[in-house]
């Protein structure tokens, strides 16, 4: 038997470890795959795609299902004027989410062109909306042409990217599914089809008409109409994946592992490094769930290109006061250095520069007992990237926006919250390693 050529012996391949399926959204969008989503006009395919894009860019669960954070490129080839921007404003953005619009001068208008090929090397998810706009003179009903389209889509996954393609549904009364030759569906990995039902309650049904993976999702989404956008709620009779909450011991073990990695390397480990190092603790999907469920409790994370980096809350840098008016900086720093009692702060903040101790008979601050007068005064309903506001205080793990100097606004995740004599009538937050009084939270 010849041993030279572009092939490998099957026995050699069997010596390699069998990897489990990696998911961008657990049980719905497999990593490194080509996914086709089809539906008639008005079935909210774009809203769904934007929902998924933001969840994956931020590494946040989508309707309770774990997502993996990767850099996302949304390619809008269809919407006119400011319609896309209106939707983006209503939905919210992310530093990990990039946009290419058909009105842009360097818009990548061909699937096989250098623009998308290059983008696939730096993005973990590319969303193409819609397929028809990238087909040029190719015919939907031609098996040969659609085979060429799927070949171009497949090529975009060569470096590990996932490609999600939006396509129109057939109008044939006796057939449900995508429009055009069956070679389109044959050449992709997952075919999702969306059907809208307007009855007593508006719902969307998402069905996997084809999948090459072990999970075949069927979802029912209840649509809630709020100003400027729809909000989706999972109304499925049964979840398509099982979500197992980790124990406190599980999260503690993972925190110890992350701590050891940081001490050994001198830098904050990223998601891929943690998953690789934590093989003895659980499979890839399990570790990703733990990372999500420990966010804001044991560690915080930040988007870093195609992954996320993790920092333990117990080793956060010293708290810095927010920028104030000229002449106030020194007095604020003196207070931080001498008299701040960080009553609730997971693991401690300050590395010795801030008194974070609690006497044995002193109870940590119970935020549920704070009066409404100490509430953060920001109304953040217009920022869709902001976590749900509950009660009168933004809890640890919430995302808030705050003023950082004149005409400058930042967003970040609440790392801790406490009382500070420098702002006696306010709750103070630690966000992005800065001290943020509630009056700095934007309206």
Structure description:
- The longest helix has 18 residues, at 248-265.
- The chain is globular, with a radius of gyration of 25 Å.
- It has a 9-stranded mixed sheet with strand order 5-4-6-7-3-8-9-10-11, with helices on both faces. It has a 4-stranded antiparallel sheet with strand order 14-15-16-17, with no helix packed on it.
- With 443 residues, it is of the alpha/beta class.
- A hairpin with a 3-residue loop joins strand 1 and strand 2 (29-30).
- It folds into 3 domains: 18-234, Rossmann fold, CATH 3.40.50; 258-315; 329-440, no CATH class.
- Residues 316-392 have low confidence and may be disordered.
- 22% of the residues lie in helices and 23% in strands.
- The chain has 10 helices and 17 strands.
Quickly describe the structure.
By secondary structure, this protein is α/β, with parallel strands linked by helices.
Percent helix among the residues?
A: 10-25%
How many structural domains does the protein architecture include? Answer: 3
Distance between the termini: 73 Å
Shape: globular
Count all strands and give the number: 17
- SSE order: HEEEHEHEHEHEHEEEEHHHEEHEEEE
Taking all residues together, what is the mean pLDDT? 76
**Strand order in space, largest sheet:** 5-4-6-7-3-8-9-10-11
User: Strand percentage, roughly?
Assistant: 15-25%
CATH superfamily of the largest domain: P-loop containing nucleotide triphosphate hydrolases
| Uncertain residue segments | 316-392
Number of helices: 10
Integer-rounded radius of gyration: 25 Å
Query: Which CATH first-tier class of the largest domain would you pick?
Result: Alpha Beta
Structural class, from helix and strand content?
alpha/beta
- Please outline the major beta sheet: 9 strands, mixed
Quaternary structure state of the chains depicted: single chain
The second-level CATH architecture of the largest domain is 3-Layer(aba) Sandwich
CATH fold title of the largest domain: Rossmann fold
